[in-house]
Amino acid sequence: MFNYEDCPDCDYHGDGKCSECHGSGNETDVFEALAESLSGQSQKCKNCGSNGKCPTCKGEGRITKTIFED
Fold it and tell me: Tens digit of pLDDT per residue, the chain (70 long)?
């Protein structure tokens, strides 16, 4: 049997957005973004790979828990 619950790893529980970039897909640490910009590298969020979705629930906002019955 399965039970669905809000994903605890989303920006706000269950919203499906990456908690690191808040769904923007871009690096939010100012110093990291500046260093990447000066070096010519991308400023993509390393947590979600720049898609803005929570990597745990893949943007669904919920996760499946398996319930074992005795």
Answer: 678 899 999 999 889 999 999 999 988 777 777 777 787 777 889 899 999 999 999 999 999 877 766 5
Residues 24/28/48/39 CA torsion (nearest 10 deg): 110
What are the helix (H) ranges across the chain? 30-39
Buried b (16+ CB within 10 A) or exposed e, 39-62: eeeebebebbebebbbeebebebe
Residue 14 to residues 36, 39, 43, 62: CA-CA distances in angstroms?
Answer: 30, 35, 26, 6
> What would the two tokens of residue 53 be?
């979705």
| pTM assigned to the model | 0.72
